[in-house]
Design goal:
Blueprint lengths: L2 H6 L11 H10 L1 H16 L6 H23 L13 H25 L4 H16 L2 H4 L4 H21 L4 H28 L4 H34 L1
Length: 235
């Protein structure tokens, strides 16, 4: 791989096996964090009094496509982002478009057939997807706060909204869980990436501590979604 791209290939979420392009693609999608993001949708849905599992699964797919592929493809187009270097700018745009269009179509379908509250929530998410990853407005929205609000807080409201057609105190309380776990993740991720560029023993040990935090917060969110699902199914 070479250079910073080779350094990023050593991060914990990149598989150690497979062809280089496959490893780079998995790295570019930040798969554990994408699953964490989709889990917020599940958590929001499972907080609702009645759960429509088809809506829950559909909205999770929307986030897997829109955030996991589209948002990360747009983010990879930045000059300081190494993950997208194995694809041309045109290829990254095509990948983003090919995943965002069906994601938006699914979201619009649920907004028009199940919950109109998804229209303003979806518009907000689309705005943040573009403004955060393309660093519009001089990067004003490319901050830890807006990352946590858009990819932690709002997905729980979306999950709850697609079930109930509304947003209430229960969903807002759940959204705080999403916000703060996402805030921990992004604040641990930034120094982790910086430390991985170094090769001495001291920084490697510190990087391992941040890696443990990242694994822990991802596991916490995924486990919360799994426990809520088990509770709802077997209650």
């Amino acid at each position: 791989m070479g250079g910073e791209e080779d350094t990023r290939s050593r991060e914990w979420f990149v598989p150690r096996w497979g062809p280089p392009r496959f490893r780079r693609f998995v790295g570019m999608t930040f798969l554990p964090y994408t699953l964490m993001n989709a889990s917020y949708v599940l958590i929001g849905s499972l907080l609702a009094p009645t759960v429509h599992y088809d809506r829950m699964a559909g909205m999770a797919v929307v986030y897997l496509l829109s955030v996991g592929v589209a948002a990360h493809s747009l983010d990879a187009m930045g000059s300081n982002k190494p993950w997208g270097k194995f694809l041309t700018r045109s290829q990254l745009l095509a990948l983003a478009f090919a995943s965002l269009v069906p994601g938006l179509a699914f979201g619009l379908f649920y907004a028009l057939t199940a919950a109109t509250v998804l229209l303003p929530l979806g518009a907000l998410e689309l705005f943040f997807l573009l403004s955060y990853n393309l660093e519009w407005f001089d990067g004003s929205f490319h901050t830890d706060f807006w990352f946590s609000a858009s990819w932690g807080f709002l997905p729980i409201l979306v999950g709850y909204g697609v079930q109930t057609g509304t947003v209430d105190l229960v969903s807002l309380a759940g959204g705080l869980f999403g916000f703060f776990t996402a805030y921990i993740e992004i604040n641990a991720s930034r120094p982790y990436k910086a430390l991985m560029r170094e090769n001495d023993v001291a920084t490697s040990q510190l990087a391992a501590r941040f890696e443990a935090i990242l694994k822990g917060v991802v596991a916490t969110v995924l486990a919360t979604a799994a426990l809520l699902l088990a509770f709802v199914v077997f209650r």
